[in-house]
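Why run this: before we spend reagent on co-expression, it is cheaper to look at a predicted model of the complex and decide which construct boundaries make sense. The entries below are exactly what would go into the expression plan.
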Amino acid sequence: MKLINKINRELPEYIDGYGRVKPYDGIRTNLEYKIRKQVSVRCEPSKNKLLESIKEVVEKCGIKNGMTLSFHHHLRNGDYVVNMVMDEIAKNGIKDIKVAISSIFPVHAPLVQHMENGVVTGIYTNYMSGAVAKAVSKGKLHYPAVMHTHGGRARAIECGDLNIDVAFIASPCCDTYGNINGVDGKSACGSLGYAIPDAMYADITVAITDNIVEYPAGSIEISQEYVDYIVHVDAIGDPKGIVSGTTRITNDPVGLKIAKMTAKIIEASGLLKDGFSFQTGAGGTSLAVAAYVKEIMKSKNIKGSFAAGGITGYLVEMFEEGLFKSLFDVQCFDLRAIESYKNNRLHQGMSASMYGNPHNKGCVVNHLDVMILGATEIDIDFNVNVTTGSDGTIMGGSGGHSDTAAGAKLAIVVTQLTRSRLPIIVDKVMTATTPGESVDVLITERGIAVNPRRQDLLEKFRDLNLRVMTIQQLKEIAEGMTGIPEKTEQEEKIVAVVEYRDGTVIDIVRKVR
Amino acid sequence: MNRLRRTMLFIPGNNPGMLQNAGILDADSVILDLEDAVSVTEKDSARILVRNAIKNVDFYGTEILVRINALSTEFGLIDIEEIAKVKPDALLIPKATEEDIETIDAMLSDIELKEGFQNGAVKLFPLIETTYGLENMYGILKKSNRIVGALLGAEDLTADLGIKRTKEGEEISYARSKSASICRACRIDAIDTPFVDINDMDGLIKDTLKAKSIGMTGKAAINPRQVDIIHKAFAPLDEEIEYAKRVLKSAEEAKEQGLGVFSLDGKMIDAPIIARAYNIMEKAKHKGVSV
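The model came back. Tokens follow.
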């Protein structure tokens, strides 16, 4: 039997390798009382947590066929830890491992071979790009990959939907009793927000570090109470791939135009006043939005409350100039952000759960005024795809997209109207990542569309001289430039299940031809 | 009504992406360039591209100029033949002379007749970028009623003079003043030469304010990021707007009382001051000031 979810996606009732499907039913449903999972804790006060090698870790943890191992993505495309652990697992002849990596990057390409050899049969992730994403799209993974949101992953871990047998925490600094931080050492990455639920709820937690220090570590982000074992390796990552030296505002005139329009829309929304809170990504256009918002805040002497999410040097600059009282940092994007996170008490870390888990007692996204989002595609119902490209190949995922869209008072999608000669606005997105119910405004260089649900905003934007129109009209402009692309056909096999932040299924991804 | 031409943004005629986006960059006018931006081997393809862009791309009301190649080159006449057929708002004529303007004016009249366009539909902007052009500017501008503005090209002009072009621009003070004055005498727009360091926004502001202070009415831009800065420089100051509002209000009251001349803050207000106040309020509209 087929199910139809609230955004009219047809879903099977049951998916092999995933289980029974709970169809997406709206952004504010499924919010009754929740139970957090129980965690088994091995208490050995005098235990020496230091192990010699990853081989010894595999033995001590009793890693065996069928287990779920987790990793965080703070080392991004410089990460060595996933590959070194999985190579050891493969060497030991262990099969049928599910890996739960908060995000997967091109550096994780060796996982493809592990998929082909049956070592890795399942993947849970919030975002994937590179060879692994391509291989999953081509159906090389035994079970469908499960795509979470950042907050949804924390939720799944806390409630036991995603049960982690062993969590491997890549640790830029770890003391001899398991106190971890991300700010010291050659592989410093700043906040370790995405790793916190893993450390707290895994059956066994292992710190892998290239910087072991005497007890106690000077700064503690994940504490000794959660860490079972520690192993020292030569390097956990390549600093060049971990953070950018600096993140830069775009020079692209179209990106700047979109950013300028976005700042005007934010101002006209009435939200840009004392106490303003804001989140934006590290992309050039997003940073340009921040730059224009900064100009308005300074000219009107507005003192904001906080900026959140992945933190860039630009947001740090605004914070240090007094435009925000505090920063909530789940991940540092550049060296300046790491420096500030290390030294400024009001530049505060947040776990993935504090950031966006819809099933805790309150997450930071709920207090966001304005969120700036990207899109690969957006449809006339404002549903957004950031998961697959135009040919159906996975090239991303929600990350915090759906979480922040749901939480923010004003969720703005900014995108060029066409990309690579394809229109961005379509009748129906290839893969729905974020439901249109949570998206308020679409801003492109050729016009702005407001979700009809937000008549209040439409009134405010009417006199702005910014080409406000319906999303259908914008779609026609795009198609006038590009023509209507042919539909891409997929095979039947389901290669990924896209979960909304509450664990319901918003869409599925089928195998590319 | 006269068009507002605070910025005229150059767009390379051989870049489809930039041509497609030319109308969204907030410039008052765009100059689709077939001359310096296009190498000799690409002249034909750029001409086709610009022609088709004018036919098919929505420029959202932005004024479209095409800088053709100089008539002294093998491309100039073909540019006019091909481009005038799609009726750009105006042609920008490099190293313009009196003879060039006469020739082009006649050619355009023929093309307009053949295509069924209104006579005079395609306007002209001479580019004043030689010492000859500068010293004979009034005569050049008077050669055609199609001329609605002139653009000072300081790079070629200083090369012609054999002098160094500097950021401070003292060497073009004379040319700027002369251009501004002659354009005003002809009641057309005086467009200043572009500021070529695209990363020096402070320098751009200073340069634009200098041009504005001697009577230039707009400025060419060579990068979209320069557009906002130039608009800001040409926008009237808040205190100018406030004063203009008071002048116009007092003028209304004086009119009701049948007074021709009146005083405000102890100073005599007469027709030129009232005209300037109107002018400031027109420009203020583009700053988002309700009038």
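The mean pLDDT of chain B is 93. Residues 7-234 of chain B form a domain with the TIM Barrel fold (CATH 3.20.20.60). Bring this page to Monday's planning discussion.
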